[in-house]
Every structure is written in C-alpha cells, then in structure tokens.
Amino acid sequence: MSKEYQIALTLVKGVGTMLAKNLLLHFGSAEAVFEANYTQLLQVEGIGKKTAEAIMNTDALALAKQEIEFIEKHDIELLFYTEDDYPKRLKNCYDAPLLLYYKGVANLNQQRVVSIVGTRNATAYGKMLCKQLIEVLKPYNVLITSGLAHGIDAAAHKECVQAEVATIGVLGHGLDRIYPAAHRELAAKMLKNGGLLTEFLPGTNPDRENFPKRNRIIAGMADVTIIVEASLKGGALITAEIANSYSRDVYAFPGRVNDEFSEGCNFLIKTNRAGLINSPMDLIYYLGWDDELSKPKLPVQAQLPLDLTKDERKVAEVLMAAAMSVDELAIHAGLPQSKLAIILLTLEMKGVIIALPGKLFKLA
Fold first, then answer.
1. DSSP for 301-313?
2. For the chain, what percent of residues have pLDDT higher than 70?
3. For the purposes of burial, counting CB atoms within 10 Å of the CB of 54, is it exposed (0-12), middle (13-18) or buried (19 or more)?
4. Dihedral in degrees, nearest 10, Cα atoms 149, 160, 199, 22
5. What Å distances lie between residue 63 and 56, 98, 149, 157, 226, CA to CA?
6. Whole-number mean pLDDT of the chain?
7. Looking at residue 310, what is its pLDDT?
8. 59, 276, 310, 312: least surrounded by Cβ within 10 Å?
9. d(CA 77, CA 255)
10. pTM for the complete prediction?
11. Which segment of 23-37, 55-69, 111-125, 295-309 scores lowest on mean pLDDT?
12. CA nearest 301: which of 328, 278, 319?
C-alpha cells in the first residue's frame, strides 16, 4: 500500500516537490499525509487552505492504484525520496524528484558516476571522443548516465553497451515507451547491464517541457558532467548549467572555433562554466582517479610539510578523518569560508590536498 500512497503524493494538484517534502518531513510518510485531517495539514509549512482541501479531496490515490498494476507487471522499481535505494547524489539536489521509476540492474549509487551529454547532431569527431572516453573510464568501474537522445547521448550509450560498461538512460517520458523509437533496440540492450530511469508516470508523452526536467536528473545523479559536443543552444548547455548550480564538476572537450557543434563547449570553457579536457586521461587526472590514489600510503601525519601555517595544518589535520566539503571544513576547522578558500587553494598548490568531484577535498 505504501507505494500507492507514494505515487499518489506526486499526483495531488498544487503539491509540488518542495511542498511534498515538507509534508513528508512533518508526517513521516506518504501514507500518513493522506491520513491527516484538515487541521493537521494546515500545520505544515507552505500548506494553505486550498492545498489542504486538495489533499483531502483528491482522487490521486485511486489513480495511483491504477498505475500499480502496470508497474508490477513490467518489473518497474519505485525509488522514493526517503528510501535508501534512491540515488544519493540526486537526493542532495534541492529540486530532486520525489519519486523515480526505474527498470534495470545497475547500482544507481555506484562509487563513480559520470554523465556524458552533447548535441543531437554528433559528428565523427564527437563519436570518436565518446569511444575514447568510455575506453578510458571502463577500468574505473563507472556508471555512465545520459539521455538516450540522438547524437552524443546515443553514441555514449552504444559505446557502453559495446564495452560492457553500466549505463543509465534518463527519459523525458514514461517507461511504457521509448523515444526516439529508433533507440528501442539500444534501450533493450542497456537493460542487461544498466537501465532506464524517469520521474514520469507510465503513459506520459515525451513533451518538450519534460526534457529540462530530465536534464536535472542527468546532472544530479553524477559526480561530473562531460560535454562532448554542443551548439550554443540546446539541452547539453542546460545540463551543464544545472550541474554547476549543484556544485558538480563540469568538463568539456574543445573544438575548432568555426565548428557549430563545438561553439557550446568553447563557450563553457571560455566563461569558466566547464574545465577543459583535451583527452579522456585529463579527466582521470582532474578527478583524482589515477593509480597513485589507490596505493598504500604512509600515515598522513608523517607526510604533512613542516612549513604549513597554523591554520593550514589545522585544515590538513581535519582532512585526516575523511574527505569533506567546504561547509564541513568550515565547521570542523572553526574557520570562516572566506579565509578557508585561500587556505584550500594554498594547500592544493603545495600538493597537500586534492580537489574531488562535488567540491570535496581530501589529503593527497
């Protein structure tokens, strides 16, 4: 029954993702939301009389029950925001979907997740980069996400299938169909070692407004987003912008200045919205995935340089415990973020720390 209530909560008119999360925080479960009375609903932040009445009088639960039969018949898994199997990276995004529909075998919380996106009009150059990128990433046991669209998305998925690398296609429609239809065979192959993911109910059409929503999932699920080829207008630049808003790393391959489908990549690099990578190995270096990180190390205490200032040493010692974000470091080291930013830059230049995806830092 809980699954029906979870679906129903996404169907109540006037209750978007943020309000739904407030309701869950207050009542503890989707089922408890629908069991609450009018007075109890009004006690939730953001819930007014109109919204409370909508929850009390909605037919969402009846609609949800109709969906359960299809979902169970086709082995579709429901991933709810409050549950452990929900993608953890995505959960950290402020606008993460309340509910995801998933069909596949890949671990959505794999240790390393990379998004690869680009133009629908991929050139031979872009397809070659996809092939090289997947070949380099394969030994690192990554999960590759993209949007199953024509062009770079499909090229990345196809290379993953060929190389037996897990890959997830994030869809802008329900799991009762594949769009574009030309990718049905590709999607079927992806299910064997990856999967298909969407926030949209079965029966949802691939409407234009769904794809920016789809793009935020592609960006939010990954540690890093790679733009292979892109024009100045299109979904790839939207995905890059969203990834930046989530404080996730973004990298782009440059192209010739007169190539239409490199204009977007060059723009992202020029405006510091993406780091430049000339080859896939550059990405491994920037992400700190090189072999040196996996080799046994001497105790960190013995490796700290003697010329560190008091505050630099304090930050380095805090990082002995684990990799941390700037916010966490500010709390544990007791330093203001304005001062901490300079210290982190200095420590990185001295080779004491390494920047990781997601704006985390760890000892080198």
1. HHHS-TT--HHHH
2. 95
3. middle
4. -130
5. 15, 17, 30, 34, 39
6. 90
7. 85
8. 310
9. 40
10. 0.78
11. 295-309
12. 319
Question: Which residues are CB-neighbours of 310 under 8 A, at least 6 positions away?
Answer: none
| DSSP one-letter string for 153-194 | HHHHHHHHHHHT--EEEE-SS-TTS-SSGGGHHHHHHHHHHS
Structure tokens that stand for 14 in this block: 């006037």
Q: Where are the alpha helices (DSSP H) in the chain?
A: 2-9, 17-27, 30-35, 38-42, 49-57, 60-73, 88-91, 124-137, 152-163, 184-193, 210-220, 235-245, 263-270, 280-287, 300-303, 310-318, 326-333, 337-349
Q: Which two tokens stand for residue 114?
A: 């990379």
Q: What is the 3-state secondary structure (H, E, C) of 93-139?
A: CCCCCCEEEEEECCCCCCCEEEEEECCCCCCHHHHHHHHHHHHHHHH
**Which token pair is 234?**
């299109």
Q: Structure tokens of 124? A: 């031979």
Q: The tokens of 30 are what?
A: 């989707």
Sign of CA dihedral 196, 202, 208, 211: negative
- The b/e string for 285-313 (b: 16+ C-beta within 10 A; e otherwise) is ebbbbeeeeeeeeeeeeeebeeebeebbb
Task: Tell me the C-alpha to C-alpha distance, in Å, between residue 229 and each of 116, 156, 173, 223, 233.
Answer: 10, 12, 24, 19, 12
Binned at pLDDT 50, 70 and 90, residue 185 comes out as very high
